[in-house]
C-alpha cells in the first residue's frame, strides 16, 4: 500500500479519519470486469526517507543526482588542464589591464586558441573545459572591443567574432550582439541578420555534445553586470528582422514559412520579440516597437489567416499548451476580422467548437459562452449537439458554480438559464442522446439540484420525449456533482449503489482524482491509499492530475512526519508519469501547472528551497520557464530565499514571459516583508515604467497603504494618498475606498474619493 512506502513510520494522527464504511475501495479485481486495451498502471513507489530512489531516464545526462548538494571532494577531484589554465590567466591579465588598446589581449587570445586546438587531442582537453574556461575572458575582450575608440590592432569586431566561431568558442550572446549591431544602424541589414542565423544553425551542429553545454551556459552570463542574454534572444531578433524585411518588400506574411526560417513550430510572441529588441538596444522602447512592427504583424495575421484552416487550429493548440488565454482570444478576434474582410466568409461550426474547447481547457468558461452566443447570432441558427454539450459544460461547470455559491440569486438565475437551454434544444428538435443526457445530469448535479438528477436517472423526466439509457458518463457526472458540493459520504454511497446495480461500472480517473484530492486535502491518507489501490486493481490509468495529487500527498505526509520532501521521489514520479512500463514515452506531458505545483509544494515552508531551485533550473534549461513555475519560485525566494535571486526571476519574467501589473504587485508585496526600502524603489520604478497595459492599480495602492498605515509611516501614506488624489487610478475597486474613508480624518483625502 502507498502509505507503507510513503511513510512507514507515520503515526496515525487524529486528523486521519477512517474511510466511511471502508468498503467502496476494497472491491477486489475479481469482482470487476477488466477494462480491455488498458495497460495496468502500478502505483508509484514513494519513500519518505529513501534518498536513493532511482533517477529517471531523462535526468541521466546530468553528472550527479539532481537536487543533492555538490560534494566538495568530488569538485576537487575534477581534472583541469594546466596549459588551459595558464593561457586563460595570461589573457585575462592582459584583457583586464587594457583600456582602449586591445591589440595584445586579442593577439594572445588568437594564439592561445590556435595552440590549444593543436594540442587538444594529445592533452586530453575536453570541449566543455575549453569552452567553459574561455567564456569570461572572451566576454571581457568582446565588450571592450565594442567601446568607442577601441584599438583592435587592425582588426574589427566582426574579425574577433569570426575568430570565436572558427575556434568554436562563440556563445549565443556573441551571435545576438552581432545581429543587434546589424540592426542598430540607420540602414538596418535584415539580410545580414538572416545570414548570421544560418551560420548559427550550422555552428550549433558542429559538435552536438559541446553545444548542449553551449545552450545551457546562458544563465552564467546573467551573473555578470551589464550582460543580459536569454536563449530566446536569437529567434526573437531573427523573427524581427525577417518581419521587417517582409514589410520593406511588401511581401505577405506566411506563418509556415516563418516557422521554417526559425526552425521551430511555435513563433515568438510579440511581447517577447519587443522585450528582446528593446533590451538589446535595437529599438528604444516598446512603443517604438509597436509602431514599427506590432501593428504590421497583426495586419499580416488577419490578411493571411484562413479562419477554418489548419494554422488557426495549430495556434489554438499551442496557446492552450502554454496556458496563454490572450493568445487564443487574439486568434479568435483575428478570424472574426479575417472572415469579415474576405467577403463575409463563413466560419465553420467545428472551428468555433475548437475555440470553445480551448476556453474550457483554460478555465475561461464565460469566454466559451461568448463564442456560443456569437455563433448563434451570426448564422448558426441550430447548433449541433456537440456545441450544446460544450455550452452546457461551461455554463454549469463546478468552478463557475462555486464562484456563485455565496449569491443565491445568481445560482437561481443559472438554474433558470439551464432550463431555458433545455427548452430551446427541445423546441429545435435536437436529437438527444445518452451523452447529452449525461451532460444535463452533470449540470443539475453541479447545481446541487439532486431531485432533478434523480428524475432523469429514473426516467421520470424525458429529454426530447425519448427514454435514454444511463451510461457510465452520466453516473460519473452524478458522483462528481456530489463531491463538488462537499457531499463526499453521499458520493461514496452512490458509487456503491452504481457498482451493486452494474458489476461492469468502474468510475473514471476523473472521479477517482476527485475523491483522492478530497482525501489528501483533508489529510485522510488511509482513504487516499484505498483509492490508489482501487485504481490499480481495476486497471484505471493515472493521468497528469493523479500525479499532481500524489506529489501533493508526498509533501503533506512528510510534513506530518516533520520531514522534508525528497527531490529524488519527485523525479521518480515525473519519470513514472512520462514513461510507459516498456520505457517508451507515455501520453502524459508535463505542463506548467504540474511543475508549478511541484515547485510550490517544495517551498511551502522554505525547508526545500534548494530542491525547488534545482528543479526550476532543470525546467528552465530543458523546457520553457512558465508563468506558474516562475511565480511559484519567485514567491518562495521573496518569502524564504534570496532577494537577489528574486530580482533575477522578476527580470526574467518581465522580459520573457509577460510584463503585467500582477507580477509587479507580487514583487512589491513580497519585498515589503523583507526590505521595505527596496519595495518602495520597485514601486517608484513601476510608476516610471508604467504604460496603458501595465501600471500600478488599486491592489498596488491598497497593500502599500495597508502596510505603511500599520507601520505609522505618515509621510509615505500621505504620498500614496496624494498619488490617488492626483488621478493615479481610474478604478478604486471595492476595498480601497473603505481604507481611504477610514483615514480621511488624519490625511488629506480628496472629498469625492470617499463619497
UniProtKB/TrEMBL annotation:
Q: Where in the cell is it found?
A: Mitochondrion
For this protein, the record's Pfam families field holds: PPR
Task: Give me the Gene Ontology terms describing cellular component.
Answer: mitochondrion
Q: Where is the composition biased (Basic and acidic residues)?
A: 52-61
Write out the biased-composition intervals (Low complexity): 33-48
**Top-rank taxon:** Eukaryota
The ranges of region (Disordered) come to 33-79
The text of the family note is: Belongs to the PPR family. P subfamily.
Protein name per the record? Mitochondrial 15S rRNA processing factor CCM1
Q: Which organism is it from?
A: [Candida] railenensis
Amino acid at each position: 500500500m502507498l502509505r507503507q512506502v510513503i511513510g512507514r513510520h507515520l503515526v496515525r494522527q487524529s486528523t486521519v479519519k477512517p474511510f466511511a464504511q471502508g468498503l467502496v475501495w476494497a472491491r477486489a479485481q475479481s469482482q470487476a470486469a477488466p477494462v480491455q486495451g488498458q495497460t495496468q498502471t502500478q502505483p508509484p513507489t514513494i519513500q519518505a526517507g529513501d534518498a536513493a530512489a532511482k533517477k529517471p531516464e531523462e535526468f541521466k545526462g546530468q553528472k550527479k543526482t539532481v537536487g543533492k548538494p555538490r560534494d566538495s571532494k568530488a569538485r576537487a577531484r575534477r581534472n583541469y588542464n594546466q596549459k588551459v589554465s595558464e593561457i586563460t590567466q595570461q589573457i585575462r591579465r592582459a584583457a583586464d589591464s587594457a583600456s582602449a588598446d586591445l591589440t595584445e589581449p586579442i593577439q594572445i587570445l588568437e594564439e592561445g586558441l590556435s595552440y590549444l586546438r593543436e594540442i587538444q587531442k594529445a592533452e586530453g582537453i575536453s570541449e566543455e573545459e575549453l569552452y567553459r574556461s574561455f567564456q569570461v575572458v572572451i566576454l571581457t575582450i568582446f565588450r571592450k572591443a565594442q567601446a568607442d575608440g577601441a584599438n583592435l590592432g587592425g582588426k574589427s569586431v566582426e574579425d574577433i567574432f569570426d575568430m570565436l566561431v572558427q575556434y568554436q568558442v562563440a556563445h549565443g550572446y556573441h551571435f545576438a550582439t552581432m545581429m543587434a549591431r546589424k540592426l542598430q544602424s540607420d540602414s538596418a541589414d535584415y539580410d545580414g541578420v538572416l545570414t548570421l542565423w544560418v551560420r548559427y544553425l550550422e555552428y550549433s551542429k558542429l559538435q552536438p555534445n559541446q553545444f548542449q553545454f553551449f545552450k545551457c551556459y546562458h544563465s552564467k552570463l546573467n551573473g555578470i553586470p551589464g550582460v543580459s542574454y536569454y536563449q530566446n534572444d536569437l529567434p526573437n531578433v531573427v523573427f524581427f528582422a525577417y518581419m521587417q524585411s517582409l514589410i520593406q518588400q511588401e511581401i505577405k506574411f506566411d506563418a509556415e514559412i516563418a516557422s521554417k526560417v526559425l526552425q521551430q513550430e511555435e513563433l515568438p510572441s510579440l511581447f517577447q520579440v519587443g522585450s528582446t529588441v528593446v533590451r538589446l538596444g535595437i529599438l528604444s522602447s516598446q512603443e517604438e516597437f509597436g509602431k514599427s512592427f506590432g501593428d504590421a504583424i497583426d495586419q499580416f495575421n488577419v490578411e493571411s489567416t484562413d479562419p477554418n484552416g489548419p494554422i488557426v487550429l495549430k495556434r489554438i493548440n499551442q496557446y492552450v499548451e502554454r496556458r496563454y488565454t490572450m493568445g487564443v482570444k487574439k486568434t479568435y478576434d483575428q478570424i472574426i476580422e479575417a472572415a469579415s474582410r474576405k467577403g463575409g466568409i463563413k466560419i465553420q461550426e467545428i472551428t468555433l467548437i475548437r475555440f470553445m474547447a480551448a476556453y474550457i481547457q483554460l478555465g475561461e468558461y464565460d469566454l466559451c459562452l461568448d463564442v456560443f452566443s456569437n455563433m448563434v447570432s451570426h448564422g448558426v441558427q441550430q447548433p449541433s449537439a456537440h456545441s450544446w454539450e460544450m455550452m452546457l459544460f461551461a455554463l454549469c461547470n463546478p468552478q463557475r458554480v462555486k464562484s456563485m455559491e455565496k449569491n443565491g440569486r445568481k445560482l437561481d438565475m443559472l438554474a433558470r438559464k439551464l432550463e431555458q437551454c433545455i427548452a430551446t434544444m427541445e423546441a429545435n428538435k435536437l436529437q438527444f442522446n445518452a451523452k447529452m443526457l449525461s451532460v444535463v445530469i452533470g449540470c443539475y448535479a453541479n447545481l446541487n439540484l439532486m431531485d432533478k438528477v434523480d428524475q432523469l436517472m429514473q426516467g421520470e423526466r424525458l429529454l426530447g420525449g425519448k427514454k435514454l439509457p444511463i451510461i457510465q458518463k452520466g453516473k460519473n457526472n452524478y458522483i462528481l456533482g456530489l463531491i463538488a458540493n462537499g457531499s463526499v459520504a453521499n458520493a461514496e454511497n452512490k458509487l456503491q449503489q452504481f457498482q451493486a446495480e452494474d458489476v461492469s461500472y468502474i468510475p473514471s480517473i476523473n472521479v477517482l482524482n476527485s475523491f483522492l484530492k478530497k482525501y489528501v486535502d483533508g489529510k485522510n491518507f488511509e482513504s487516499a491509499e484505498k483509492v490508489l489501490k482501487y485504481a490499480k486493481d481495476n486497471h484505471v490509468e493515472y493521468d497528469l492530475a493523479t500525479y499532481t495529487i500524489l506529489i501533493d500527498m508526498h509533501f503533506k505526509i512528510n510534513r506530518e512526519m516533520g520531514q522534508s520532501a525528497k527531490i529524488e521521489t519527485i523525479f521518480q514520479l515525473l519519470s513514472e508519469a512520462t514513461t510507459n512500463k516498456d520505457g517508451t514515452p507515455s501520453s502524459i506531458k508535463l505542463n506548467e501547472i504540474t511543475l508549478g505545483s511541484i515547485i510550490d509544494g517544495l517551498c511551502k515552508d522554505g525547508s526545500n528551497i534548494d530542491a525547488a531551485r534545482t528543479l526550476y533550473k532543470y525546467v528552465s534549461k530543458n523546457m520553457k520557464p512558465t508563468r506558474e513555475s516562475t511565480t511559484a519560485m519567485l514567491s518562495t525566494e521573496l518569502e524564504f530565499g534570496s532577494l537577489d535571486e528574486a530580482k533575477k526571476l522578476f527580470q526574467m519574467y518581465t522580459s520573457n514571459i509577460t510584463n503585467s501589473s500582477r507580477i509587479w504587485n507580487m514583487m512589491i508585496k513580497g519585498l515589503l516583508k523583507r526590505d521595505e526600502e527596496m519595495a518602495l524603489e520597485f514601486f517608484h520604478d513601476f510608476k516610471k515604467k508604467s504604460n496603458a497595459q501595465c501600471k500600478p492599480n488599486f491592489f498596488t495602492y491598497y497593500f502599500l497603504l495597508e502596510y505603511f498605515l500599520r507601520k505609522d509611516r505618515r509621510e509615505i501614506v500621505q504620498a500614496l494618498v496624494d498619488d490617488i488624489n492626483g488621478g493615479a487610478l481610474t478604478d478604486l475597486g471595492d476595498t480601497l475606498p473603505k481604507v481611504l474613508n477610514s483615514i480621511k480624518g488624519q490625511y488629506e483625502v480628496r472629498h469625492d474619493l470617499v463619497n
